[in-house]
Design brief:
Strand order of the largest sheet: 1-3-2
Helix content: 55-70%
Order of helices and strands: HHEHHEEHH
Shape: globular
Largest sheet: 3 strands, antiparallel
Radius of gyration: 19 Å
Distance between the termini: 21 Å
């Protein structure tokens, strides 16, 4: 990705690009707030915690190493550690030491966490559907998925030393 040097004029957004960018920022902010409020109201947890439970529920034996969980959820290790501590306090996850690595830990979704996820999933899916998918045609849904995939791929470099949240 090329950035402007100090003596180069910045490549400003066109009026159309600016409208598109602001529409994206507004929609992403409002969508995250909408989903966060729904989950807080209905399940007593923020969207991030719900996402952690979902990722763990899909993992083999409902367990992942902390580093893998951070990578899959795209968050920093310190943010993950704080979130897991809160989920642990609620009895929804537990930590287990990694037998092959003294410094490593697993996060395991408990039966109570799975039960909470099962109870909160229908309301969350309804909120996602109402806020996003019901507003788009099937062609728009497909295009949105393709666009988001392209953006995510471009922001997740594979070279060593990449500055990614789960590596911080």
């Amino acid at each position: 990705m090329k950035t402007a040097s100090a003596d180069e004029e910045p490549r400003w957004l066109s009026d159309e690009e600016q409208r598109t960018w602001l529409a994206y920022v507004h929609a992403a902010t409002l969508l995250e707030d909408h989903l966060d409020r729904q989950l807080q109201r209905d399940a007593g947890m923020p969207h991030l915690y719900y996402h952690l439970l979902v990722v763990l529920s899909a993992a083999p034996e409902r367990r992942l190493r902390m580093t893998e969980l951070a990578m899959r959820t795209k968050i920093t290790r310190s943010r993950l550690s704080h979130a897991v501590a809160r989920l642990e306090k609620n009895g929804w996850v537990r930590r287990e030491d990694c037998p092959s690595d003294k410094r490593g830990q697993f996060t395991v979704l408990t039966d109570g966490g799975l039960e909470m996820l099962s109870k909160s999933a229908p309301g969350h899916v309804a909120a996602v559907r109402q806020a996003l998918f019901d507003r788009l045609s099937s062609e728009q849904q497909k295009a949105l998925g393709e666009i988001m995939g392209i953006i995510a791929e471009g922001l997740q470099p594979t070279e060593a030393g990449a500055d990614l949240p789960w590596l911080r």
